[in-house]
Amino acid sequence: MSASIKSEYQSCLQSCLDCLIDCKVCLAKMAGKESMNDCPLCCIQCIEVLEASIGLMTADSKFSKEQCALCAKVCDYCAEQCDAHDHEHCKRCAESCRKCAEECRKMAA
Questions:
Q1: What structural domains does the chain harbor?
Q2: Closest Cα to residue 104, out of 76, 83, 81?
Q3: Surface-to-core class of residue 24, CB atoms within 10 Å of its CB (0-12 exposed, 13-18 middle, 19+ buried)
Q4: In terms of Cα–Cα distance, which of 107, 99, 90, 98 is closest to 29?
Q5: pLDDT of residue 3
Q6: CB atoms within 10 A of CB 28
Q7: What is the 3-state secondary structure (H, E, C) of 25-77?
Q8: Whole-Å CA distances, 28 to 24, 63, 91, 97
Q9: What pLDDT digit, counting tens, does each position of 74-102 carry?
Q10: Residues of 48-74 as b/e, b for ≥16 C-beta within 10 angstroms?
Q11: How far are the Cα atoms of 9, 83, 84, 103 from residue 17, in angstroms, in the given order?
Q12: What is the reported pTM?
């Protein structure tokens, strides 16, 4: 991470970046597959909120905390949906989402 990014954002940003990658992998691997729930739709929504969160934190926006609170909610939802699948990529996505939600809640506090 760049030294110009506030240190208070570092852990949350890293979790968001990791989660973004895992959601994109999950989405790609679920393309064309049947799903019994909102996976991969939740990954699409998670990607959107993660990108917004990363953007606001890197810009040191006054809305970062509010965005991180929303990001935690979306990540919790995505973790629940992806964890219901037995695919390795879904399990990895769910774990990343849980970790990101935890870091985002810390940022939002």
A1: 7-108 (1.20.1270.360)
A2: 76
A3: middle
A4: 90
A5: 52
A6: 11
A7: HHHHHHCCCCCCCCCCHHHHHHHHHHHHHHHHHHCCCCCHHHHHHHHHHHHHH
A8: 6, 30, 14, 16
A9: 999 999 999 999 999 999 999 999 999 99
A10: ebbebbbebbbeeeeebeebbeebbeb
A11: 12, 19, 23, 12
A12: 0.92
Cβ–Cβ under 8 Å, residues 47 and 20: yes
Closest by CA to 20, choosing from 59, 78, 88, 62, is 78
Q: Which residues does the chain have with pLDDT short of 70?
A: 1-4
Q: How far is CA 74 from CA 41, 61, 81, 104, in A?
A: 11, 20, 11, 11
CA-CA distances (angstroms) from residue 64 to 38, 57, 69? 27, 5, 9
Is residue 93 within 8 Å of 27, Cβ to Cβ? no
